[in-house]
Amino acid sequence: MSGFSLKNDREALASSRFSCTERERAVFEAGIKMATIYHQFVGTPVNRGSVSVLEKAISESIEVQPYVLSADVSIDRSSIPSGKDMYSYTSLTGDMIDAVVKIGLGGYEVTAEMRYDRELKYPLMFVSSVEERQHGE
């Protein structure tokens, strides 16, 4: 392979596509992950027996994406019917999702969150922190 690392070559190529700072790109990546959680999973059927599996599936699907350090997703169980028959399920909605995703890119670590904001009556996605970090962390 002529002495080049596939990972470094691909990252260099991907980085060359961005016309922004490394900090801006880290925030962009966090936004992509938040949008994935919302737009990929809202509408998913869920019941009391599947909720923990769905939380894990969402978290793990986000964690395989580039730059993700961690993804923690929890689903509000109060909206899920407690019955055990075939009709005791609901569809996942944005107001049921609570998520925290940490992105590490170059010299930055970004934390993005999704929480239902009762005052806004809206499942708000936001950047809660952008911190400089040591390269290699």
For the structure shown, list the relevant keywords.
3 helices, alpha+beta, 137 residues, elongated
Concise account of the structure shown:
By secondary structure, this protein is of the alpha+beta class. The chain is built from three helices and six strands. It has a single domain, classed as 2-Layer Sandwich (Pantoate--beta-alanine Ligase, Chain: A,domain 2), CATH 3.30.1300.20.
Protein architecture, described:
The protein has 137 residues and is of the alpha+beta class. It has a single domain (21-132), classed as Pantoate--beta-alanine Ligase, Chain: A,domain 2. The chain is 31% helix and 31% strand. It has a four-stranded antiparallel sheet. The chain has a two-stranded antiparallel ribbon with strand order 1-3. It starts with 5 loop residues before the first helix and ends in a 5-residue tail after the last strand.
User: How many strands appear in the DSSP assignment?
Assistant: 6
- Give the N-terminus to C-terminus distance in angstroms: 27 Å
**Tell me, what is the CATH class?**
Alpha Beta
Low-confidence stretches: none
Number of domains: 1
In CATH terms, what is the fold-level topology?
Pantoate--beta-alanine Ligase, Chain: A,domain 2
Average of the residue pLDDT scores: 92
Radius of gyration: 18 Å
